[in-house]
Amino acid sequence: MTGLRSDPQRESPVLTDGARAVLALADPTAPPFETGTPQAARAAYDAGRPAVQGERAAVAAVRDLVIEDGIGALPARLYRGHGAPASGAPALLYLHGGGWVLGGLDSHDEVCRAFADMAGAVVLCPDYRLAPEHRFPAAVEDGRRALAWLRKRAGEFGVDPARIAVGGDSAGGNLATVTALAARGDDAPPLTAQLLFYPNTDAAQDSDSFRLFASGYGLTAATMRWFRDLTIRDAADLADWRFSPLKSADLTGAPPAYVAIAEADILADEGIAYARRLEAAGVPTVFERWPGLIHGFVSMGRHIPQSREAIAAAVAAWKRFEAR
């Protein structure tokens, strides 16, 4: 695994032009998310998305559906990429970011489309329940439900149940890691990969990157703490491995992992720490540190060309894992 060397310039990273362009879009008079309500934060987040999202790939097919599993209805969106075979296709369960509080089927539509086309795959994105209306472990349970449903319906969607991976970004990366760890005991073919972009892995939020990039780089430490505190039921949840997968006692047998972090991101250190633990547990791991970039860059394709490059790198790693 490469990219974990110390960087003497870490306290003053040189941001890319694209990252600076995204940061310049922020309204300095807008109140921080944490000073208002979750509903206001969602409205602001949704209103700002079009200014940063890139073009949406014209996948072969896309449709909205509902996951019905006897527990409750869970909206979802299914994508079929160009080049995906009619049967035996690889599939990706993608769990969107948004601090467990924001986001939905539209917020990461461009990411899911890019994965579907680049991988020639079927992508399922569930609209998992959000906090604070549905606190931990609701989103974790929905990730598990979505995976079980995809496995059960694999034949209907032309998916090979032995070629399913999970992925996600930020809070969705957290959910993807937890889904991957929990799936180790399933009576089903093992997941082929976990594709993680700047994942939340440690609810303690006390790393050096939290201090270094606490403000001025998009996602702030104050906002991330607000997200966390809206999601947990009580302080005991902070130590639960399903919320802090870095605290899992054993990562042995986890699916092969692609882990990407942004250089100037409060979550950088916990992503690095998780990649190191996976490698130490003998899990095939590809780690990439994206210099000059900020949290959320994979969803900022309008300004940051590396968003597509990172998805392509994740797809390439996924294919290598499958070929092992």
TrEMBL record:
Residues 92-298 form the Alpha/beta hydrolase fold-3 domain. Keywords: Hydrolase. GO terms for molecular function: hydrolase activity. Signal peptide: none annotated. Its EC number is 3.1.1.-. It comes from Aureimonas pseudogalii. Belongs to the 'GDXG' lipolytic enzyme family. This is Acetyl esterase. The keyword Hydrolase applies. It is an enzyme of class 3 (hydrolase). The lineage of its organism: Bacteria, Pseudomonadati, Pseudomonadota, Alphaproteobacteria, Hyphomicrobiales. Pfam families: Abhydrolase_3. It comes from the Bacteria.
